[in-house]
Specification:
single chain; alpha/beta; 3 domains; globular; 4-stranded antiparallel β-sheet; Rossmann fold; 17% strand; Immunoglobulin-like; TIM Barrel; 694 residues; 20 helices; 6-stranded mixed β-sheet
Length: 694
């Protein structure tokens, strides 16, 4: 069904409603209208990395982990799987009259905000710090979720529009100040791509103000840019209780009816919250018109018609419940976990030799933690494999003894309340290490230590991190393990940048989803070579960064950072070695030959960066302009062509205008950024060419 026909049917249905009924449909928990055959519908549903908060579903790696895969095609496969499970669950639950929250088909995903500061607790919901990577993955996630049939399989929502990345503690009152250049170059491109390329069905506003205007009531963002400039035709939803913030925290209005009117007039069709209960009062006070209420209702019912919710020929209605939580979906989750894990340090210890190890110590507070697998906004897996469980299963099949100690609490001083001294599991962890041929220390965070304000109690501040170190309990554990002198692999389950200096080898596992433990064992013992790439810069310290509340891009992310990173954006090691040669570049694409010169079959990612040589408006460093994952058997070589993203040869000036970047461009193609730190860590520099246009 095309949008024009869906809107025509929506207009006919809404015309039969009273104004009270129309207003009632603008809340996220829209009630039934029995006389018109309209069932209740709850618009609030989540699918960040699997159908979330609605019972059993496949749990894929957290979004930041999926970003580390650097693979658009694979990303869309994951989204298609999520959409199938979403329909399977919706069909079964609605048939039983269950239309509660989290059980619909309008999903408030993906989160395509820019992860500009590693302290931000919600950063692991995003695709990282780069607008190109974020845009490409966002587009493909939306396409996978929504599908391309007569009806939408599910409806995606690009959030949070816009300029939203912490601090969580003050998000309800904060005014994010961003220059026109930073808006157009960094904060808006992924949303523009979501609208123009992926035709995303919904956009969610942010809690904060943007240059003085509350995002969910911003004429600049929602009317001038989203509707008029980009031609967005879908519906807009508020973040949850964000419209109430207008009068309670931002103080841009005085009353709830005024807040409801401000949002509605800016084109915010749906209220996650209760402020739109005051729309009829706003109508009586002359703050809104009946036509504005009607238009919002029409937009929302247009989405429901596009989903086939009032049709008898929707091709997705026959998807059975048994299409959810399948072996095939679990296999896809395992593939995702294997592809996302990122090796950042290796002195030769990895891969482990299963024939040379008789006893393995597995220690750490994340070793046997399901929470360390799932990130936030997660579903409930029926088959989670913790890191310990995956390693134990692998080792037992090969006659390797596994010794386990939790070692410490994730953030508290001790595990047992009656213990007289802190670090009450430390001696046990050291004893296990002393008995072992190698030690796997599984440390890091989880959604209770980095996440959304209000969701969980946090050891630091409202979900945000206070620094880039592990909690003190885990630092003490790693220091003690290092002193044993045993070979030490540090596995970090995390959704953001951390500086963890201990370990002969270090693997960033992210929050890898339900198959994380199986994937970890296969990687550590060399069944699979790690191939993830960092979608964010790992810094030495927050002392290297501007103030958290500073939304200028100056000295932020790899494009503008002036210091030396701990591990750069785009970096990730392999068990194999590679040669990149025979670069050919023109104004459309770059082609290189990649050869696996090692003895291990492995994936890698060809990354292309561009720097305008004739423009003072270009980012400080070469910027990502394309990428492509490639799989190579030992000794195999392939020609890999990477097409540039659409705006690769443009720049954004201080007025926020995207203009040609001149005639001369430096183009880099390789397995990392061309920066000195990446070259030193990789042991090879990307190839370079100069492209002249026009």
């Amino acid at each position: 069904m095309d949008r024009k026909e869906a809107r025509r049917q929506a207009e006919q249905l809404v015309a039969r409603m009273t104004v009270e009924e129309r207003a009632s449909q603008l809340k996220y928990d829209a009630p039934a209208i029995p006389r018109l055959g309209v069932p209740a519908y709850n618009w609030w549903n989540e699918a960040l990395h699997g159908v979330a908060r609605a019972g059993t579903a496949t749990v894929f790696p957290q979004a930041i982990g999926l970003a580390a895969v650097f693979d658009e095609d694979f990303h869309q496969r994951v989204a298609e799987c999520i959409a199938t499970e979403a329909r399977a669950k919706y069909n079964a639950q609605s048939a039983h009259g269950d239309r509660d929250i989290y059980k619909g088909l309008t999903f408030w995903s993906p989160n395509i905000n820019i992860f500009r500061d590693p302290r931000w607790g919600r950063g692991h919901e995003t695709y990282g710090e780069d607008p190109v990577l974020t845009a490409r993955l966002g587009v493909r996630f939306i396409r996978g979720l929504q599908g391309e049939g007569k009806y939408m399989k599910a409806a995606a929502c690009a959030k949070h529009f816009a300029v939203h990345s912490g601090p969580e503690a003050i998000r309800h009152e904060f005014d994010a100040q961003a220059t026109p250049k930073d808006m157009a170059e960094t904060y808006l491109p992924a949303f523009e791509a979501a609208v123009k390329e992926a035709r995303v069905e919904a956009v969610m506003g942010a809690y904060n103000r943007v240059n003085g205007e509350p995002a969910c009531g911003s004429q600049t963002l929602l009317v001038d840019i989203l509707r008029k400039k980009w031609g967005f035709e879908g519906h807009i939803t508020s973040d949850c209780w964000a419209i109430a913030d207008f009068h309670t925290h931002h103080h841009v209005t005085a009353t709830a009816p005024e807040s409801a009117a401000m949002a509605l007039k800016a084109g915010c069709d749906l209220n996650c919250g209760v402020t739109y209960l005051h729309l009829l009062a706003a109508l009586q006070e002359g703050l809104v018109t009946e036509e504005e209420i009607t238009e919002a209702a029409v937009r929302l019912f247009t989405t429901r018609y596009l989903l086939g919710l009032f049709a008898d020929d929707c091709e997705f209605d026959q998807i059975p419940y048994t299409a959810c939580d399948t072996d095939a979906n679990d296999a896809l989750a395992l593939e995702a976990a294997e592809k996302c894990m990122t090796l950042v340090k290796n002195n030769g210890l990895l891969p482990l030799d299963a024939n040379g190890i008789r006893t393995l110590a597995v220690v750490g507070p994340n070793a046997d933690s399901v929470e360390a697998l799932i990130g936030n906004y997660h579903g409930t897996s029926s088959r989670p494999v913790t890191f310990l469980a995956g390693l134990r299963r692998y080792c037992e099949e090969r006659g390797i003894r596994v010794l386990y100690s939790e070692g410490c609490a994730k953030a508290a001083e001790k595990l047992e309340g009656c213990a007289l001294a802190p670090n009450d599991r430390l001696s046990e962890a050291v004893i296990c290490a002393e008995q072992a041929d190698a030690v796997i220390a599984v440390v890091g965070l989880d959604e209770t230590l980095e996440g959304e304000e209000g969701d969980n109690g946090n050891y630091s501040a409202s979900g945000d991190k206070i620094d880039l170190r592990l909690p003190a309990s885990q630092r003490a554990l790693l220091e003690a393990l290092e002193k044993t002198g045993r070979p030490l692999v540090t596995v970090v389950a995390v959704g953001s940048a951390l500086n963890v200096p201990q370990g002969d080898a270090q693997l960033i596992a992210w929050y890898p989803g339900q198959a994380g433990g199986t994937a970890l064992a296969r990687i550590l013992f060399g069944e699979v070579s790690p191939s993830g790439k960092l979608p964010v810069t790992f810094y030495e310290s927050v002392d290297d960064l501007p103030d958290f509340t500073d939304y200028s891009m100056k000295n932020r992310t790899y494009r503008y950072f002036t210091g030396t990173p701990l591990y750069p954006f785009g970096f990730g090691l392999s068990y194999s070695t590679f040669e990149v040669k025979d670069m050919a570049a023109d104004g459309k694409a770059v082609t290189v030959t990649v050869r696996n010169t090692g003895k291990t079959d492995a994936d890698n990612v060809v990354e292309v960066y561009v720097k305008a040589l004739d423009s003072a408006d270009a980012p400080l460093h070469p910027a990502l302009a394309g990428f492509r994952r490639v799989s190579l058997k030992a000794g195999e070589e392939k020609a890999v062509t990477v097409e540039y993203v659409r705006n690769a040869f443009t720049v954004v000036n201080e007025a926020g205008e995207r203009v040609p970047g001149g005639r001369r461009f430096a183009v880099y193609a390789g397995l990392s950024q061309p920066d000195p730190r990446s070259v030193a860590l990789m042991g090879a520099a990307p190839l370079q060419a100069e492209v002249t246009l026009g």
